[in-house]
Amino acid sequence: QTVVTQEPSFSVSPGGTVTLTCGLTSGSVSTAHYPSWCQQNPGQAPRTLIYSTKTRSSGVPDRFSGSILGNKAALTITGAQADDESDYYCVLYVGSGLWVFGGGTKLTVL
Amino acid sequence: QVQLQESGPGLVKPSGTLSLTCAVSGVSISSSNWWSWVRQPPGKGLAWIGEVSHSGSTIYNPSLKSRVTISIDKSKSHFSLKLTSLTAADTALYFCARRYDFLSGSNRYTYFDYWGQGTLVTVSS
User: B115 to chain A: which residues are within 8 Å by CB?
Assistant: First the structure.
């Protein structure tokens, strides 16, 4: 069974930069996994910020960017703001039509 | 404006069957997209359940495959989820979503672009 890994929690200072990562327990993440990043606030539906590795969804500020760093997908927030405090999930296409979400990263801005 | 809206019972008994419907508006359910279900147990992360195409093809999470059925009703512009043999572990917030899949030049793009607000299903006697 494919497991997608994310940091359980991360902290960033307001105005700072943070990079969250998304990996696989076996193998490397590549663009062929079509990595997406979703933001979810408590009690709300997820919202996709970045898809297909680095494309920002409509209306997403350009302080959010996606990339492949080494063997992982990465979400970088540059100039973090208080309302970026949220849960962030990556989701990967793992082949055979299957999608797997990571466990999520709880980001604190303080 | 594309909207997805889940509906169905909020409480179901153990060993019973969960049946949810996702009503789609603002876009044709017959368009070339995939219509997905994702769930989130209380306090936990998201888990992809499966999806159905506009033509009725289905793909399921292997861990749920023996218990899940996803179907589409184009005449009613909705798609549905059935999950059988329920246990407390199936208690979750259930989301429906559209997975948009498109080509731009030679590049393929795909992502969950629209989500319902979610419906909580509790499995309890």
Answer: 45-47
